[in-house]
Every structure is written in structure tokens, then in C-alpha cells.
Amino acid sequence: MMKRYYPDCKLIIFDLDGTLYEDTDHFDHYASLLQERVAPEHQEDFMDDYVAMKRGEHTVSIGKAYDAVNDSVLTLDPLTLKVTHVQDWDGTEWDKERIEHTYSGDLSFDFEKIIAIGDGWWLPYSSARHHGVSIEETYECYSRTKEFMVTDAFQLTKTPGLKEGLLKLKEEAEVVLVTNSEEDDVQRLLEELGLKDIFPEIIPLAQKPVQTKKIFLELMEKYGVKPEETVSIGDNLINEIAPALLLGMRTMYIQPTGIELEHDNLKVVTGLEEVFKENL
Length: 280
Fold this sequence. Notes:
The chain has 280 residues and is α/β, with parallel strands linked by helices. It is built from 11 helices and 10 strands. A 6-stranded parallel beta sheet has the order 7-6-1-8-9-10. It has a 4-stranded antiparallel beta sheet with strand order 4-3-2-5, with no helix packed on it. A hairpin with a 4-residue loop joins β2 and β3 (72-76). The radius of gyration is 19 Å and the shape is globular.
């Protein structure tokens, strides 16, 4: 299992959404709720943008960032998070001078002005913000989606071999769950997945990527491990992978669609079933 990828790992930090389960129907549910908040004359445009994003036919895509103030889409170096390319929503290119003037320092992802599009949640969110939906309304729709995810109408797909693999992994290393989800949602999702009581430590409302480095440093200090002995596992490049690499940690990036990234401390897998397949 994990030891064959990183033999010396002593602390393994897991994400929840998109990592311990990989379903995507909830993103569409979120989009449908957001569409109701868009002005009627722009609702079709909102959904057209979202569908184009999912197909990879839009300026906005996972791995980029959305600047809600300038209504611009930022292409980032995936390993340093520096801005390398900027486009307006319609695809119009920015010149180098304008990019350097506007984004000269390190980006500060704040969930409101500069939004890291690290996973499927942020595609409908970005489209909604572009089409005039308020931050408060997006959060309300997100909360309603989370409530939907713990009803009988929504069924999570359990990853084969995951529970058995995690139980074995706990015998070899410390395991911690760090997620942006609220504690009540986390517990309900873990119970639905059959993973309740697996994680001795859970950090909810983590505010990744803003607090990612801080949390990882605190965990390494708490468990007395070095960065090279710590692994961050997640599906969000901006939230869990790039910050860990910048700290010298090992990483495992879950990317079902495949991505070409090379780094000595990076392993790309299609899902945790690939990692724990020996437990099937």
C-alpha cells in the first residue's frame, strides 16, 4: 500500500471530498441551486458556462484561479502557484506588463476575491460569481448541497478496499483527516462511507488553501516528523498538493482524468482504489 510509494512516511494527511469518495453528482446539484439565484435573463448563460467548464471548453478550469474583482482567470504554475497567464472571462489575453503589474506578489486565496479552482465545487461557484450571485447566496447553496448529500436521495460510492487499507495503514503511520467541511458533515459522510472512527484526529473547517501550510506545519510539529516523512493526499492541487511540495513534504495527487506533472515528491494516481487495490 502506501509504503510502496513512500517507505519512510510516518504521518499521512488525507483530504475528504474527492479523496475518500470521488462522486461528482453533488457538483451538478450545487450548480442547479446556484442557477436559481442568477437573474432570469442570465440563467442559461450561467449553465452554458458551467457545462463548458466540465467539458474542458471554457477559460475556467480546475487548477486555475478566478479573480472575482477583475473577472479574470489565472493560470498558475502548479508547483509554485505563481501566475503565468491571465485571460478575461471571454478568453481575451492579458499582456505581460499588465499581468506583472496586477499580480506581482504571491497570491492570497481568500475564497471571496481570489478563488482557487482546485476541484469541482469551484466551477459552478465561479460561474455564479461571474453572473452576479453574491457570496452569501453561494454559501447558502453550498450548505443546502451538503444537506442533500446526507439524505437518502444521494448515495456515496464506497471505494473498494479503502476501509481495509486505512486500517492497515494505521498500524504503520499516523493518519489525520484535514477538510474544509464542517464537523457535522464530516461525521455524517464518514459514517455513510463506513469510515467512522478510522481517523484519530480530524481537522474540520480547515480553510484550505489559506491555512494549509500552517496546519501542515503544526501537525508535523505535533507528531514529531520531518517534511520528508509526511504525505499529503488529496484531489485538489492548490489546496493539498502545491503547499505540501513547497514545504518539502511528499504528496499523492488524485486525478482521475490524468495530468502531466513531474516532481520528485509527487505521485499522481487515478484514485485510492489504485493505492489500496491489494485489499480487494
